[in-house]
Design a protein that fits this description.
It is built from nine helices and 18 strands. The chain has 365 residues and is of the alpha+beta class. The strands form four sheets. It has a nine-stranded mixed sheet with strand order 2-3-7-8-11-14-15-16-18. Helix 2 runs antiparallel to helix 7, helix 4 runs parallel beside helix 8 and helix 7 crosses helix 8. The N terminus is likely disordered. Bound molecules: adenosine-5'-diphosphate and magnesium ion. The site of adenosine-5'-diphosphate has 22 residues, from strand 11 and helix 8.
Amino acid sequence: MRRPRPRVIALTLVLTGAMLIAGAARLARIDPEFRETIYVFGTLVEIEIRGEDRDTAQAATAAVGRMLQDFHTDWHAWRPGALGDLNTAIAQGKALTVDNRLATVLHEGRRLACESGGLFDPAIGGLIGLWGFHADTPPEGAPPAPDQVAALLAGQPRMTDLRFDGARVWSVNPAVQLDLGGFAKGAALDLAGAALRAMGIKNAVLNAGGGVQVLGAHGSRPWRVAIRDPFVWGAVAAVSLRPGEVLHTSGNYERYFEHGAERFAHIIDPRTGYPVREIVSVSVLDTNGARADAAATALSVAGRNDWPGVAAQMGVSAVLMITDTGALLATPAMMARLDPVGDEFPQAVEVVPLPRRAFRPACAE
Ligand code: ADP
Ligand code: MG
């Protein structure tokens, strides 16, 4: 396997011209751009707002920062908070009433897990904890013993074990332990984007290391986002995002641990209990962050042969995949949107069509 370089995956391309007009525009109290980076959700989130006066942009950014901080507390599987309480209740075979927002996100997670055929499954928190991918810092030491993995697999935890009565949530299987890490960023950016819109912000980008969500445009041109090359410093391609679009990348080169000659990535195959190996990075372009983020995780698990069927099942059409040998695979919808950053792509992109008649499992509860 080529040695991937650990780094954030998506970045907005820096736009220099904006600085030149800032002075003139300030006279009219409209700043062409307002940019702030906050540390929240265990990552750096860059918020850029254009075309609003500074006070409005600052207030909106602060509100989004508070919102993301609340999600971090409420949705964290491993710290005291609403989700931690729910995990305790599930292990005890009890139901718990959570806030409506968490209930909605869990409901969405259940549907996405079902549509992915269980390849994305936030109910495998026990396995994620066992591998040590629950902490903010990467795990160290040896991987877990095979019998520990087997014991957790034997419990067959599935999101489809969750039951809802409004915001009252329980599981028919006490082995379910929820870890929302596979789609929380996407779900959070959906809500943050909606909040910005509700505050009247028309043009903004939220960039949360691997997840990008845009509102409107960057002045007269679209917001442009680069997809990181997992192997060397730089980008494999850029995408111009249309208003309301999101781009989520699951990178197996960002969080992992090494033991001996082996590298263990933070995405776990729920069928085997072991980390995925074949796929190094998956980017999904969509209009729904939760779905894009969940699909990026699911397609990493699906692997090189099976991913097109899973993408079709989950209803995503624009996918870029980078394998451990450095191959670039893209769906026709993604290919149409990819721009090389230099003269050309680092290597030829293989276009992989999705199955035309997609099997869509019935996943409404
Ligand atoms: P990134 O953290 O790079 O955005 P992902 O969106 O794929 O990548 O999220 C990875 C996280 O998702 C892991 O740290 C873990 O918390 C969780 N996870 C790992 N494997 C799965 C899986 N098969 N289904 C759902 N969540 C998973
Ligand atoms: Mg994901």
